[in-house]
Structures are given as structure tokens and as C-alpha cells.
Specification:
Oligomer: heterodimer
Largest sheet of chain B: 6 strands, antiparallel
Largest interface: A-B, 68 and 83 residues
Structural class of chain A: mainly alpha
Structural class of chain B: alpha+beta
Low-confidence stretches of chain A: 457-464
Mean pLDDT of chain B: 88
Number of strands of chain B: 17
Number of helices of chain A: 33
Radius of gyration of chain B: 25 Å
Shape of chain A: flat
Number of strands of chain A: 1
Radius of gyration of chain A: 38 Å
Helix content of chain B: 25-40%
Mean pLDDT of chain A: 86
Helix content of chain A: 55-70%
């Protein structure tokens, strides 16, 4: 009871402090509190002091009011501070925990700070920091969960995507409440990502949110929500409606979701998509659907359009059908079923017929597309393509070669295709000589295969294909033909012929070179194959083109990246050379030299 | 013998750029001379800079726990990249030729030695006080207190509901005079009031929506009460010192610090506030941007292993000088401090040291930390309340609690002790550290029973609830930091 009076006094003084103490004189509400305070003061002196203070305040003038108000306020606050309520009544439930399921780490503030800044501020170079930290496992720190969630809304969409796809799934269901509380049905940017992520982490629990998003979400949210559908029969009606919606993105999302269902009506919608202007939107969903009925439809439709191409006399109609065949064939990419196999073989058998189509390069284009599908479909189609190599045009020969590389032993591939390398070529009229075109096709196929196997996509993932084992005799052939690009591709450590050729070619290129990048290709090969002169040559190139005396202050990222691959023995020589180089070049090289030194 | 490694040099650098530039100097071969003294206590050399003459730099390990870096370059970073480069060259195994220390450098070393000795000597001598100067200073401070009183009363008369950007700006202007009156602490206290009316970027041109203003009124009134007490206690304290010039600054209360007294080691020693051979474990660390004070503050929360006291290290980096002041970092080992200075204060006083060594942290250290946790919540709550009622007390004290269970009651996070006493966890109103409650649900289940929690208490003036914010969890095998 007495404390309640003090609380009242506090509330009244707070009111007066907000309004200004000048109005405190004669305040009737305060006056009313004096009597109960005095009464309580008989038992506890603090109340008597409070009563005294309130009296002074009520009687205060404009000048003295501030002092009086603060006196009362300080006294009452001090008492109220001792009355803070703690505890909570009710049954103590165990904390719903979602153990991250990963070993957490505790990074130092100096390590975390740049990462936190990358996640929560703007500016360039942040994605690299985030990606690098992700690779090093730095996100296993609990304290990064919230900033990572915040990064979903980053102004740079790639960061939002990266965080949504790679980082946040690490934390599992534990982040769901936070995702849900931040989610805005009318939002753009990060909000569709939030919805997709919630669905990914908990498809059943997010069902209601998805439904609500479909009803009242923004266009972006609806698209994301539709991609979450497909698990329940009731989705079907809605998706069918949306598959003919006005907005292209909405139609695309609906078709994607429909592709997850096997109902006849869903298949009908996809079929309709294939025959309408939405063909391009339908390709990916159809490719993911494995229903035989849909496959039959695709095959029949493609067959019909190929017939049109072959039989029509109207060039416009041919071109239109050919475009549709190109798109429809994409629906068959990645399939290895019998029906697809039979159909592709049938198409392959019609290649001469297609070549005969009198409409620009339509036939060639379609044959290339068919060959590409055949080369990766089934073992049987691959064999068919490879077996027909002698009859193939140069444009398709490389595809057959690739199929051979994937399905045959390296020595057999060499035996079959090396004659194209050694075939006599009319050097004077080589552009018109099919033998030259075929040789180039094989050479390009080898270099392309190699490049592709080393290619890294934006997410830092490795190339899609496994590196191929080449028969060692290819390198001998490349050396004898002095095909430097091919030597660069096939060269391996300790190969005397290629080492000699690389030395000879480097000497000539180095002498002529006016900038360091002109030597890059040869240097890169030498470093890769641990050529005995690799270090000497790289140092010589740096000295010639990036010394302190020259005006060149830039050596480029590619040259820098060669340094960590040099042997350890290069370190003292590099350190000796560095002071002679341009200062800015040293700054560029410094990190790479450190990387080489850090190598075990 | 100089025993340093790359990690030591990295941590000596004021920032990562300085470390990178120091390394680059070695790579660029900018060091024309690299020497080490015959007794292996100092590295010195010459480094070519942009000028004609090379810079003379040195790293003196005469006092291994507090190396001295010297350089003739004009850089304000300390240590500069040249000194760092010199150390990098040493740890990377570059050839350092033994040589006699140059005369001028030797003279500086001797001066340093003499200074250290003099300091030690002076520590024993009674301090002379210039009574005239002190009286003058105190008189100026008293004038400053009058000004603070006038400002506070003006604010109360005006009413905090009538505060606007213009008034807050004017108060800020006047607060500068408190700095001139040797009252930086009082100035900061006034800042704490005005910052309530500032936007997140520290500007006063922001009109806060009504709801937000309502929420700050109670806090604003509390701050005014604090200023009022500061005026009263400050005036009395200064008057006492004016009357008796021999009187040392008060150490049993924090009033001297509130007025902005810069404690000197010697004063702390005289007052018996220096501890020797102390081992400390850092339980939490945060680095926050104090927009109102226009500085970054790095705060380390440490426990002394011998007595379990929780104290703070604070590193203030004003925006203008942030580039030149090394930021503190979180620390994961046991700090062994030979001489630790503790500032006067109540629950979590500030501590400082000039030199320290470190040793790896072991399970027995965690056990010791856990041993100091309060098992009886009622007792610690009583202490906290008694502490909070002091108008000038730290309103968000830190304690270590040993809880039996951590769970939820109607959605609120709660810790419970063995007697069933409960404390509610919240992030509300404690902005120095980022929010941490949500992280608890990411911890393994075993962290929810019989563990030790480092917490910050806060009494909410509107809801009148005393609640806690978790900063770290101490398990038998480690410290799980929940804040940064």
C-alpha cells in the first residue's frame, strides 16, 4: 500500500517533469498525496521525507520548483529502484532449442568485425569477404546469426542470395522465429528469400504462411510462394489459375510448381505451355517432370515440328518450326530413358534430311543440337554418334569426340581420332579444306574440355565435368604440330619435348614482348608443369616489364596468381628481386609471395 | 634475448593496414640497415621512406612486457609501419647485424631507464601539491558545477516534453563549457541526457515520433536526477577539497570519476588501489559506437581469478583520433598482470594495466570462474537493488550467476536457481552490446542446466522490473560469448 503511494508520487513528478516544473506549484494531485505519505511516515522515515519534499514542491515558486521536483524525484526513484520486480510465475518450460548441429567457434572481435561490417553495411568487395568467411567456416559463430539474417535484405542482391542459399541453412530451424517475425507479405528483395528459406527449413510449418502470401503477398512474394507449392492436392486449382496469370513471373512460378505434380490437369497445363507463347517458360519445368505422358507429348510435338521443318516449303514456317524444335529439344536434356533414346536416334538418322533443308543454316543448327543431346544421353546414343564419326561434318565431329572421351578408353580415342590430326592439310587453302576444319575441331574440343574442367562458377564451385585422361601421345602430336595452345593444355611435368618447345617459344616471345601479359600463356604453362626454367622466366619477365625503372606499375591478377605455384626455392630469389620492382607492383605481389611462404 | 613471433607483431599493430604496410616494407627491401644490440635487447635500423633521409626506427625490449617503439617518421600511428616492419624482418629471420647502439638512441634508452627509475623513486616520495593552482582549478570546477546546476534546473523548468532538437543542440553547446571547467565527467553525464533526444547518427535534427518520445521520458527524468545529485555531491566534494588542499581525491565513492578526475597511477597506489600479480580471464568483450560522445568504446569484462571480482577495461577511441589509437581485441587466454590499477567505483570498477603476459587458459580456470558464480539469486538481487538506489551508481551492473535451469515461462526466457528463484532475461534497454537472448535457443541442450551465466542487470523504470541480459555462458570447457 505504502509503496503504491510512492509509485503515485513518482508518476506525478514524472508528469510534472515532462510538462515543466513551473506548473508544479499548487498541483492538486500532488497535494492529495501528502496526507497518505505523512501517515506512512509515522512508520518509515523515508515516507516522512517524501511528504516533506512533496510539500516543498507544491509550495514552490517558479524559481525553486526545479530543485524541489528533482529532490522528490531522486528520493522516490531511489526507493523504487529497490522495489524492482523479479521472477515470473508459471510453469518453467524447457527452452525450445534447435542446436545448430555444428561445432561452433568463437572468433576474435578483430576477425568478426570486418565480416559484420560486410554483412551490415554497403560498399564493394563485401561478397568476397562473406564468401571467403563462409569457406573458412567463420559463420559457425552464434553471433553472426542475426547479421546474416539481416543480410537477406542487402542492397546487393547477390549477397542476399548467397546468404539465403549457403549461410543461413547452416543454422537450421533455430532461425525460423526470427525469419517469421521479420517477414513482410508486401515486401520485395529479402522477403521472398525469407519465405523460400522458411519453406526450405520447415515445409509443413510454413504452409499457412505460404497460403497467406499467395492471397495477399506482393508479386515477388507470390512468385516465391508459388515455388513452395505442390505438396498438397489443394494447390492444384490455385496453380492452374495462376498458370494463365497476367504477369510472366507468376505464370513461370506456377508452371514450375505444377511440374512437381503428376495430376493430369497439371500435365495438361504444361502441355498447353509447350504449345503456347510460354514455351520458354515451360522448358525448365518440363525438364524436371518425369511423367511418361508428358514425355510422349514432348516427343510427338518435336517429331511433328521436325516433319514440318523437313517438309515445308515456306521459309518462315520452317524457321518458326525450327525455333520450336530447338526449344522442345531442350526439354529432353538430361534424360536417359528408352523413349528419349529411341527418339534421339531417330532424329540422328534424319541428319542428312535436315541438312538438305533450304533455309539458311537451320539444318546444321538442329543437327548440332541433336548431336549434343546424343553425346550425353545414353551409352547407346554415344556409341552411335562415335561410330558415325567418319561421316560427320566438322561442326558435329567435336561432339562425337567428346562423347568418345567420356565413353571409351583413352588409347582407343587416340586410335580413332588422331588420324584427323595427322591428315594432310592443304596449308595454302586450308580454310576451304575440310581436313583442316576437322583437325581444328578436335584440337578445340581438347582445349575446351580442359578449360571447362578447370572452370569455376560464380559460387566458387568446380567445373561440371570431370577432367579427362588423355592418351600421352596427344602431347607428342601437339609438340610436333607446334600447336602451342594444345601444348599449353596437355603439357605435363617432365615431358622433354614440350619443355624444349616451351623454352624455345618463351625465349622468342620474351625477346619480342613489350608487356608482361604477352608472356603470360607460356609462363602459366611453365609454372603449371614445373618447367625447370619457370622461376627464372617469371622473374626475368617481372624484371624486364615491371622494374622500378619502367613506367609499368601493373602486372595483372593472372601473373600474380602464378607466384604461389612456384617452388619454395623461388622465395629467396623473389625477395631479392622485389626491391628492384616498381613499388606498386610490389604491393600487388606482396600477398601472393606471402601465400607462397605460407605453403607447407 | 628478444622472443617475439609474427602473432606478437600482428597484435602490436594499431590496425590491419599498418601490419600489411609493415610487411610490405620488408618485401620492398626498404630496410637499409638491420641491427641488434650485443645484449639482444633492442632492434634498430634504417628504413627508406619517401624523404631523402632514411627513418631511424627501433624496437626496444629493455622492458619485455612493455616494448618501446621509436621512429623518426612523422606518422601518428603507434607503432608506425617502420617499427612494425623492423619486427617483421626480425621474426622472418632477416639478418640482423650485431652492432653498438647509436649514441642518440642509447641516450634515449638511458633517459627511459632513468624515467622508470625516477618513477619508482617518486612513487615513494610524498607528492608536492601546488596549492594555489589546485585552489584555482577547484574554483573553476565549482563555477562549472554552478553552470551544470543552472542547465539542469532550466531543463526541468522547461519540461522534458518540450525538449526539441534546438534545445538539445543548445545544451550540447553549453556542455562544452563544462569541459573547459575541468569537468569532463559532468560533461559526459549531460551528454547522456541529450543523447536520448538524438537520432541514431547522433544528430539532433530528428523529430522523434510520439511513442518513441514517451519511452525516453522516464530515462530522461532519471538522468536529470543523476545530474541533480552530481551537482549536490560534486559541490560538497569540491568544497571539501577547497577547504583542505591536502585532501586526496575520494576513493570510496565514484564522485571523483563522475567529475572527470583523471586518476594517476600514483594516486591509486597511495589509495591502495593497485594490485600485484593478478590473473584475469576475459568473460565478454564489446566494441560500441557511442554516438553522443563521438567515440568508439572497447569494453572488456574481466574476472579476477583470485577473488572473482568482475571489472572492466575500457578503451576510448574518439572519432577524430580513432585511426591512431589501437583498438582492443577480445582475449582468450589468461592475462597475467604484474601491476593492476583499479579505479574507484562500485560493482564493476574500471581497471587498467600497462604491461601483461599471458598463459593458455585451462579447464581449471573455467572451474574457478564457475566457482565464483552467485548460487542464490535472492542475495544477488538484494545486492543489486541496494546498489541501484544510489543515484550515481552504475545502472547496469554485471554479475555472474550459477543457474540450475534455463527455460521459458509464457514465452519469456527465465533462469532459475536451486531455490526456485527466477530472473527474466531480456535485451530491452541494454544497447551497449548487441541483442543476445535469441542466441540461447541455438545452444546445445546441456547449456540449459547447471551452468554459469555472465549477466547485466537493468531496472526498467516504466515496467519497474529488474531483469537481466546474458553476455556469456561459462561451461566447464569454455566461455560461449553471446555478445561482441
Amino acid at each position: 500500500m505504502s509503496i503504491a503511494v510512492l509509485t503515485q508520487v513518482y508518476d506525478e513528478t514524472r508528469r510534472l517533469a515532462i510538462a515543466g516544473s513551473v506548473v508544479a506549484g499548487g498541483d492538486f494531485r500532488l497535494k492529495k498525496l501528502i496526507a497518505p505519505l505523512e501517515q506512512a511516515g509515522a512508520k518509515a522515515p523515508v515516507f516522512a521525507r517524501a511528504a516533506e519534499g512533496v510539500k516543498t514542491l507544491v509550495e514552490s515558486s517558479e524559481q525553486t520548483s526545479a530543485q524541489a521536483l528533482l529532490d522528490v524525484c531522486t528520493l522516490v526513484s531511489a526507493v523504487l529502484y529497490t522495489q524492482g520486480e523479479t521472477g515470473l510465475v508459471g510453469e518453467l518450460q524447457p527452452l525450445e532449442t534447435t542446436d545448430l548441429g555444428l561445432q561452433t567457434t568463437q572468433a576474435s572481435a578483430r576477425v568478426l568485425k570486418p565480416l559484420l561490417e560486410a554483412l551490415t553495411t554497403t560498399g564493394s568487395g563485401r561478397l568476397e569477404i562473406i564468401r571467403d568467411s563462409h569457406e573458412r567456416g567463420a559463420f559457425r559463430d552464434l553471433r553472426l546469426v542475426k547479421p546474416a539474417l539481416q543480410a537477406l535484405d542487402d542492397v546487393y542482391p547477390e549477397i542476399g542470395e548467397f546468404v539465403a542459399n549457403k549461410v543461413l541453412p547452416l543454422y537450421g530451424k533455430a532461425i525460423l522465429p526470427e525469419l517469421k517475425s521479420q517477414f513482410d507479405f508486401k515486401g520485395k528483395g529479402g522477403h521472398p528469400r525469407r519465405l523460400s528459406l522458411m519453406h526450405r527449413l520447415d515445409p509443413v510449418g510454413t504452409r499457412e504462411t505460404v497460403k497467406q502470401a499467395l492471397e495477399s503477398g506482393s508479386k515477388e512474394i507470390k512468385v516465391a510462394a508459388m515455388e513452395c507449392l505442390g505438396a498438397e492436392p489443394e494447390d492444384l486449382t490455385f496453380l492452374l489459375e495462376q498458370s494463365v496469370a497476367k504477369a510472366k513471373e507468376v505464370r513461370g512460378a506456377a508452371l514450375k510448381a505444377l511440374a512437381k505434380l503428376d495430376a493430369d490437369v497439371a500435365l495438361d497445363a504444361l502441355k498447353k505451355g509447350l504449345t503456347s507463347a510460354d514455351l520458354d517458360l515451360t522448358i525448365q519445368p518440363v525438364r524436371e517432370n518425369r511423367h511418361p505422358k508428358l514425355l510422349t507429348f514432348v516427343i510427338d510435338e518435336t517429331q511433328r515440328e521436325i516433319d514440318n521443318v523437313c517438309q515445308s516449303k515456306d521459309k518462315k514456317a520452317i524457321a518458326k518450326s525450327a525455333d520450336r524444335v530447338e526449344s522442345l529439344l531442350q526439354c529432353l536434356d538430361g534424360r536417359d530413358d528408352k523413349a528419349t533414346e529411341a527418339f534421339l536416334l531417330k532424329c540422328f538418322a534424319r541428319r542428312d534430311e535436315l541438312l538438305g533443308v533450304k533455309c539458311e543454316d537451320v539444318g546444321k543448327g538442329l543437327n548440332n543440337r541433336i548431336a549434343a543431346l546424343i553425346s550425353s544421353a545414353t551409352k547407346k546414343t554415344q556409341q552411335m554418334l562415335v561410330g558415325a564419326h567418319a561421316t560427320l561434318e566438322p561442326e558435329v565431329l567435336d561432339t562425337a569426340f567428346e562423347a568418345a572421351c567420356r565413353s571409351m578408353k583413352p588409347k582407343d580415342v587416340f586410335a580413332m581420332f588422331s588420324p584427323y590430326f595427322t591428315a594432310k592439310v592443304d596449308e595454302k587453302k586450308k580454310q576451304k579444306d575440310p581436313a583442316f576444319a576437322k583437325r581444328e575441331a578436335i584440337a578445340n574440343a581438347i582445349t575446351d574440355e580442359w578449360r571447362w574442367s578447370r572452370h569455376e562458377d560464380d559460387d566458387g564451385e568446380g567445373g561440371e565435368t570431370m577432367p579427362i585422361d588423355w592418351d600421352p601421345r596427344w602431347l607428342d602430336l601437339a609438340v610436333s604440330l607446334k600447336n602451342l595452345e594444345l601444348v599449353g593444355t596437355l603439357a605435363r611435368p617432365g615431358h622433354a619435348g614440350s619443355n624444349a618447345l616451351l623454352s624455345e617459344e618463351f625465349a622468342a616471345a620474351f625477346k619480342k614482348s613489350k608487356a608482361i601479359h604477352e608472356c603470360y600463356g607460356l609462363l602459366a604453362t611453365q609454372v603449371r608443369v614445373q618447367h625447370p626454367d619457370a622461376t627464372d622466366n617469371l622473374l626475368a619477365a617481372l624484371e624486364k616489364h615491371a622494374s622500378a625503372k619502367t613506367k609499368n606499375n601493373w602486372v595483372g591478377f593472372n601473373i600474380c596468381r602464378l607466384i604461389p605455384d612456384l617452388p619454395k626455392s623461388a622465395i629467396p630469389r623473389l625477395e631479392e628481386l622485389l626491391p628492384k620492382l616498381h613499388e606498386k607492383v610490389i604491393d600487388q605481389l606482396a600477398d601472393y609471395v606471402a601465400e607462397l611462404k605460407a605453403k607447407a | 634475448m628478444i622472443s617475439i613471433d609474427e602473432g606478437f607483431v600482428d597484435s602490436a599493430a594499431p590496425n590491419s593496414d599498418a601490419a600489411k604496410n609493415g610487411r610490405a616494407l620488408v618485401l620492398k627491401g626498404k630496410f637499409l640497415k638491420l641491427h641488434v644490440s650485443d645484449d639482444q635487447t633492442i632492434l634498430f635500423g634504417e628504413c627508406q621512406g619517401s624523404g631523402k633521409e632514411p627513418y631511424q626506427c627501433s624496437c626496444d625490449f629493455q622492458l619485455p612486457e612493455a616494448p618501446t617503439h621509436r621512429c623518426s617518421c612523422p606518422s601518428r600511428q603507434f607503432p608506425c609501419k617502420h617499427s612494425l616492419g623492423l619486427m617483421y624482418a626480425y621474426v622472418q629471420g632477416k639478418k640482423f647485424v650485431p652492432a653498438a647502439v647509436p649514441d642518440d638512441l642509447q641516450a634515449k634508452r638511458e633517459k627511459l631507464q632513468a624515467r622508470v627509475e625516477k618513477k619508482a623513486e617518486e612513487a615513494d616520495k610524498p607528492k608536492k601539491i601546488d596549492k594555489g593552482a589546485l585552489a584555482k582549478k577547484i574554483q573553476t570546477q565549482l563555477t562549472g558545477i554552478d553552470l551544470l546546476e543552472k542547465l539542469t534546473h532550466d531543463l526541468v523548468r522547461l519540461g522534458i516534453g518540450n525538449m526539441n532538437a534546438k534545445t538539445a543542440g543548445e545544451i550540447e553547446e553549453q556542455a562544452k563549457q563544462l569541459g573547459n571547467a575541468y569537468l569532463p565527467g559532468a560533461q559526459a553525464a549531460l551528454h547522456n541526457f541529450t543523447k536520448l533526444f538524438a537520432s541514431e547518427d547522433g544528430r539532433f535534427d530528428d523529430v522523434r515520433p510520439g511513442g518513441q518520445r514517451e519511452r525516453i521520458f522516464s530515462e530522461a527524468l532519471d538522468q536529470l536526477g543523476r545530474l541533480h545529485t552530481l551537482v549536490k555531491q560534486g559541490r560538497a566534494y569540491l568544497q571539501r577539497r577547497l577547504d583542505d588542499p591536502e585532501l586526496a581525491p575520494e576513493t570510496d565513492s565514484s564522485i571523483a570519476a563522475w567529475l572527470g578526475h583523471a586518476w594517476q597511477l600514483r594516486e591509486l597506489k597511495d589509495a591502495g588501489l593497485v594490485e600485484t600479480d593478478v590473473e584475469l580471464v576475459q568473460l565478454a568483450f564489446n566494441s560500441h559506437d557511442d554516438v553522443a560522445r563521438r567515440e568508439f568504446v572497447d569494453t572488456g569484462i574481466w574476472m579476477t581469478l583470485s577473488n572473482g571480482r568482475i571489472r572492466l577495461t575500457q578503451n576510448f577511441r574518439p572519432y577524430k583520433a580513432a585511426k591512431y589509437i589501437k583498438s582492443d581485441d577480445s582475449f582468450f587466454q589468461v592475462a597475467q598482470v604484474k601491476e593492476l590499477c583499479a579505479y574507484p567505483g562500485d560493482v564493476n570498477p574500471r581497471i587498467r594495466w600497462d604491461a601483461m603476459l599471458s598463459r593458455p587458459i585451462e579447464p581449471k580456470d573455467f572451474q574457478q570462474v564457475r566457482g565464483y558464480g552467485h548460487r542464490d539469486f535472492a542475495a544477488v538481487v538484494k545486492d543489486v537493488k541496494t546498489h541501484l538506489k544510489g543515484p550515481l551508481s552504475d545502472k547496469q551492473p554485471i554479475h555472474v550467476l550459477n543457474f540450475q535451469r534455463l527455460g521459458q515461462v509464457e514465452g519469456a526466457l527465465v533462469v532459475e536457481d536451486s531455490k526456485g528463484e527466477r530472473l527474466v532475461l531480456t535485451d530491452a534497454g541494454m544497447t551497449e552490446e548487441p541483442a543476445s537472448c535469441h542466441l540461447l535457443s541455438l545452444l546445445p541442450r546441456e547449456c540449459f542446466s547447471d551452468q554459469t551465466l555472465v549477466v547485466r542487470f537493468r531496472h526498467d523504470l516504466d515496467t519497474r522490473k529488474l531483469q537481466i541480459k546474458p553476455l556469456s555462458l561459462v561451461t566447464p570447457t569454455g566461455v560461449v560469448r553471446l555478445t561482441l
